[in-house]
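[agent] plan:
  1. take the single chain provided in the ticket
  2. run structure prediction with default settings
  3. attach structure tokens to the ticket
  4. add a short note for the reviewer (M.T.)
[agent] executing step 1
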Amino acid sequence: MNGTVISKAAAHWNSYQLADILTHCFEGYLVSFTIDGETFATRFAAEDISLNDSRIWMQDGEPKALAIITRRGQTSRLAAFAIRPELRGQGLGKQFMQQLIDEARARGDRNMWLEVIVGNDGGLALYERMGFVRQQTLVGFHATSSTLFTETGDMLEIDPLVMARKMMTDSRLRLPWLSAAETLYKLPGKAFVLNDVAYAMIATNPQFTRLRMLYVDPTARGKGQAKKLITLLHERFPGLSTATAIPEQMAPLYLSCGYRQDPVTQYEMLLKL
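[agent] step 2 finished; step 3 output follows
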């Protein structure tokens, strides 16, 4: 390592610059990753990015590592963390993570979350050494076939904020950050309701259409409403996929509705501060 590594708040860069830095830092990662400035702004705004708490580490004037921190109340999340290949294997990952944890404690955060792709053994080992504990496995799905959609009036489009507010009244609901109500209503897309009890959020962009969340009122669960709604969505949006943010225990529902599970999975991890 030729020069001293210093950290700066990500607030010094705009979304397009941060997207380039993040893509650059993910070079040679387990899964190919690229992001453009517009997508960066939309995605991380919905996840409540804190630019003042996010960090870029510089060496010789060049960005070499990036951590995206998102925050809600006294809970923070490591939404992205990447180091350039030439700095990997030098113990800097542990150093940078300790800085992020120390800063989270200093601002009064109680919990820190993250997701790590299964198979990223180095990342998983680092997070476990730092005290993070696996909470659950998150999976994703793709629709494998569809039939011609016939409008019946059963599925009605609603404001995504209405769905988010409904979810927020469920005090026992604990969802991954990517599927939480606080994320969903900020994304570009559509929300639907079936029989006033089953809700779905569809996020749209030019590349794909994704089912980001399915929610059924507790009083109506176990009555086939979720399966019916998934089937209707499957028909209306051919090629529909989900984000890799579905709790693994939901897999039987999606598989029974004609979806294929994606090979990439994630561990959701928690550090109690």
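[agent] step 4 note for reviewer: The chain has a mean pLDDT of 93.
[agent] ticket updated
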